[in-house]
Amino acid sequence: MKSIKRRRFTDKAAHWVIKLGGAAVIVVILALFIFIFLEVYPLLKDARVIDKKTFLLSESVISLKTDDQQEIACVLYKKGLVEFISLADGAVIKKHPLSGLGNALITSVDMADNHLFIGTDDGRLLTVALSFSESFDQGVRVISPEVSEEEPLCFDDQKKPLKSIICKKSDSARVLIASSEDGRLLLRATEETTSLFGRGEKKEVAQDITGLISGAGRNDAPHLSPPEDHLAKTPAVTSLALDHFLENLYVGASNGELFHFNISDKENPYLVEKIKASDTVITALGFLLGDISLVVGDQRGGINVWMRVRDEALASGWALKKIHTLKSHNAAVIAIAPSFRDKGFLTAASDGTINLNHATSEQTLLTIATAARPATIVFSPKANGALAVDENNTLYLWHISNPHPETTLKTLFGRVWYEGYEKPEFVWQSTGGTDDFEPKLSLTPLIFGTIKGTMYAMLFAVPVGVLAALYTSQFLHKTLKPIKPVIEIMAALPSVVLGFLAGLWLAPLIEKIFPAIIIFPFFILVFITFAIFLWNYIPPSFKGRYKHGAEALFLIPFIIIAAYVSIRLCGYCEHLLFSDDYRRWLNDVLGLRYDQRNAVVVGFAIGFAIIPLIFTISEDAMNNVPKSLISASLALGATPWQTAVRVVLPTASPGVFSAIMIGFGRAVGETMIVLMATGNTPIMDWNIFNGFRALAANIAVEIPEAPMGGTLYRTLFLAALLLFITTFLVNTIAETVRQKMKRRYSKL
């Protein structure tokens, strides 16, 4: 009686332990899914305004600037007063009237590198340097603004008002471009030569380049308009943009044309290209971070991003092309303010709307508004805020949360036209060598690489694993069954060891004997055929000494000989079939580049890792086929091979399918082998001689350097989520199919 109670207690305990263990596994999987999803979820959030402040100013404003911490605003009034205002409470911290302005009026302003370049109504240029010094007083950080003026420069000898002005400077040069009220385009440049012994002489250039717009100047671009167009009326200059290389000047015109000048030689600038960028007046121009992409705004509110792209059809080899189109305003675009952190930018329209845009994702992330027409706008240095002043002298401050502007479904999975590329492409390149780098976070090449590596591994592992299981379960003698544990030991090899061997031993070996690998199937077929023929002529008395199923041992020497002959004939085969160099032949004839660490190596290495899984599960499934079915088949006259293929294999197919799916899941998630045995390059090419980068390997490479909470960090978690979902779906589908196949064959 006690033994019965003990057994019942043991059964109940085992039941609950198994039940709780299964529930714990489900809870852990769900918790893992929730954790990964919570790390990915911020990528889906839109930009939003955290806080908004407004301050009423005393006069009309023409220019605005803020410090890095967005605590102080520097305001330049039209009457020539520089005022520093606390953005916490609107209090005036410091005032500085511009003494060099005199009685002149400000007509245009450009701000660059903490300098104000002020154009006046009498043709002069005033340069004002701004700085924000930090100090600590009794543990409190104090920001002290400072202003310094340079001597005014007579920019226009005719003393006409400077309608628009732009200035850029480098270590040894400074270039100023201005358009006058009477339509002239003026260039002033100061260059200082340098040598091994220090700085040399200073050279100044001052000239009127208006003639280049009408075609009267130097023209090295033969694809432009014919000479008779030179007599046409010169369009009015409406906007200017100059890159920090001091080489490319872009001029927007009243007829919608965009002029590109090369001013690398300041004494001999020339017109490179002229395009029709808009059907109406170009009202604003601005470079994005890096000064490669140019934002063009027009009178109808259109916003487009243009970039120079390689074009072999043109004599110059380059052409301006529109690469991004963003959401339009309902009124004329009057100002463009680029971000100092990414490819984002602000655009302001005459109706008071201000859009936060991102060029790479082609998204308008946020729309804010002022009560009246904006006079000037500023994007904060840390891209976390925007400032604007409208015509009612109201200063607006918006604190913005926009941590992941570059991530959309298109940028993550679609083709994107990146800077420096000739067309939209799938690209993964998370880091660069400069601060103006444009992140390229397309997961498509990584998904492609995962599929590519898995397919080549399965092509190698499935036939070997399933056929080995079929032979072991149906033909191998029972006394030789210990071979199964030996194969299972292969699964215990760490993947890092397999990756190490594949990358440093197998890859160079395959590169050396690749022609031998090509002819090896032919020789193995010949030698196996010869072995079978020879086996039939061996006396039965000799065969009887060996147990049934041991014939495979007889084949081993012939397989070794076939491999030896293939290697010995490798050089002759390469000479005969590939003109002495198979790598050059692949490149010249087939257009395929051979990389030492390629998909072939990965296929062998991952295949070697998953063969034990496929073999073990398949062999168990075949051994579980009822012996009565096998005996009945043999009794009806079927050969052992017919029985194995037509009875055993279909009956065991649910287990074989499960084995293949488990092997597939292992191949998809393989990390170290892919990482060490490929070039780890995220390219999309089915060429078996090229490498690739898989999702799992990419996570292993990138996650140590990804800033926590950044876009790259969360994108890597998205890749992990894709792997998680893929594995879950594959296992679910596999189990569903297995159950259906099991029910089907259980009725036979």
How would you describe the overall organization of this protein?
- With 748 residues, the protein is an alpha+beta fold.
- Helices cover 38% and strands 28% of the residues.
- The chain is built from 17 helices and 31 strands.
- α4 (444-474) packs across α11 (599-623).
- The longest helix is centred in the last third of the chain and has 42 residues, at 495-536.
- The relative contact order is 0.07.
Structural class: alpha+beta
Alpha carbon gap, first and last residue: 44 Å
Average of the residue pLDDT scores = 86
Unreliable stretches: 216-232
Put simply, the count of helices is 17
**Helix content estimate:** 25-40%
Oligomer: single chain
Strand content: 25-35%
Largest sheet: 5 strands, antiparallel
Summary?
The protein has 748 residues and is an alpha+beta fold. The protein has 17 helices and 31 strands.
Keywords:
4-stranded antiparallel beta sheet, 38% helix, elongated, 748 residues, 17 helices, 5-stranded antiparallel beta sheet
SSE order and pairing:
Layout: H1 2-40, E1 48-56, E2 61-66, E3 72-77, E4 81-86, E5 92-97, E6 106-112, E7 115-120, E8 124-137, E9 140-149, E10 153-154, E11 162-169, E12 173-180, E13 185-195, E14 198-208, H2 210-214, E15 237-242, E16 248-253, E17 257-262, E18 270-276, E19 282-287, E20 294-298, E21 303-310, E22 318-326, E23 333-338, E24 344-349, E25 353-358, E26 363-369, E27 374-379, E28 385-390, E29 394-401, H3 409-413, E30 428-429, E31 440-441, H4 444-474, H5 483-489, H6 495-536, H7 540-543, H8 551-568, H9 570-578, H10 582-590, H11 599-623, H12 627-635, H13 640-651, H14 653-668, H15 672-677, H16 695-702, H17 711-746
